[in-house]
Automatic annotation (TrEMBL):
Sites bearing N6-(pyridoxal phosphate)lysine, chain numbering: 195
Organism: Pelovirga terrestris
InterPro entries tied to this protein: Aminotrans_IV, Aminotransferase-like, B_amino_transII, BCAT-like_C, BCAT-like_N, BCAT_family
Cofactor(s) recorded in Swiss-Prot or TrEMBL: pyridoxal 5'-phosphate
Name of this chain's protein: branched-chain-amino-acid transaminase
One Pfam family here: Aminotran_4
């Protein structure tokens, strides 16, 4: 398939204040788009001006939520070059999500090459300040106008780019987490491991309640016994428990995070023993009190590493540490971001340079 490159007529003004970028609100001048029709496959791949789509009100995505997405970042390095972090892993996961949602797979190499070309054209949009990046959002939606319940015969796949600020402006701040004993995010056999919008729609109600009560995030328990800790919002959870790293195994209800994987590899390099097992909510609450649980943090592309300051479950709250992020948490945060921004050697070949 050819990639067509269309001109832009009216470039937007460039980023005026890199220190005040709001996450996911501003988009660049161009986007990548391709279309799919059953029997024909993917076609009309192009880089075109960023613009709204015209979609039929009956388009299946609006009714039955056939939608998947990805999230990754491009980083500007001190020497001006631009680096992507493990982008092939994102497109591999995009295809795993596509299979689960009965959507067509994409040619991973083609789409990654198209993304690299798009970022080359939009290079001026990759911000320069410490901690800033260009957030990349590949998306696929079902577009066939049809109200019958079955997989769509038409799809749009597109990639949009958004310059984003440093997640932590005043230093890395520990978050307050509410452990939900009622609402659940994903069930065994469900779509928890697919990166699909419906999982997020299902999570909003509990997240809204948590926010109203002053919490930053919801920690989800397994849906069956409401006993085992799974993940948080858009982050996987890692715990330093008895001096070992403990994190939920990937058994269908937890998203296979690329930051999680990278963190586990780096922690293994640092000599930590890794246990992929589900910690119980009692282990978390008691562990924070009796000293067996010393650090806990979330991992995800947007935030990188997010230290937990406290957990609240039913009527009790426990604190971790002294209100400061844990020592290992910060060491890992610095190691991972140093690789992303090219300040430390990329010994695992995670970086793709433009
Ligand atoms: C995207 C996502 C993550 C984090 O994955 P990364 O690849 O590390 O960004 C974790 N949990 C959920 C539910 C997600 O959607």
């Amino acid at each position: 398939m050819d990639l067509q490159i269309l001109p832009i007529d009216h470039p937007k003004p460039r980023i005026s204040d890199e220190n005040n970028l709001v996450f996911g609100k501003q988009f660049t001048d161009r986007m990548f788009v391709m279309e799919y029709d059953s029997g024909k496959g993917w076609h009309s791949a192009r880089i075109q001006p960023y613009a709204p789509f015209v979609l039929d009100p009956a388009a299946m995505v609006f009714h039955y939520a056939q939608e998947i997405f990805e999230g990754l970042k491009a980083f500007r390095r001190a020497d001006g070059t631009i680096a992507l972090f493990r982008p092939a892993d994102n497109f591999a996961r995009f295809n795993r999500s596509a299979r689960r949602m009965c959507m067509p797979e994409v040619d991973e190499r083609f789409v990654l090459d198209a993304l690299l070309e798009l970022i080359r054209l939009e290079a001026d949009w990759v911000p320069h300040n410490q901690g800033t990046s260009l957030y990349i959002r590949p998306t696929m939606i079902a577009t066939e106008p049809m109200l019958g319940v079955r997989p769509s015969n038409k799809y749009l796949c597109y990639i949009i780019l958004s310059p984003v600020g440093a997640y932590y402006k005043g230093g890395v701040a520990p978050v307050k987490i509410w452990i939900s004993d009622f609402y659940v995010r994903a069930t065994e056999g469900g779509t928890g491991e697919a990166k699909t919008g419906g999982n997020y729609a299902a999570s909003l109600y509990a997240a809204k309640q948590a926010a109203e009560d002053g919490y930053d995030q919801v920690l989800w328990l397994d849906a069956k016994e409401k006993r085992f800790v799974e993940e948080v919002g858009s982050m996987n959870m890692l715990f330093l428990y008895d001096g070992k790293i403990v994190t939920s195994p990937l058994r269908g209800t937890v998203l296979d995070g690329i930051t999680r994987r990278s963190a586990l590899t780096l922690l293994g390099d640092m000599g930590y023993q890794i246990e992929e097992r589900a910690l119980t909510v009692d282990e978390v609450m008691e562990g924070a009190t009796n000293g067996r649980l010393t650090e806990a943090f979330g991992t995800g592309t947007a935030v990188v590493i997010s230290p937990v300051g406290s957990f609240c479950y039913k009527d009790s709250c426990v604190r971790l540490g002294d209100g400061q992020p844990g020592k290992l948490t910060m060491e890992l945060y610095h190691k991972l971001t140093a690789i992303q921004y090219g300040k430390e050697a990329d010994s695992h070949n995670w970086v793709t340079l433009l």
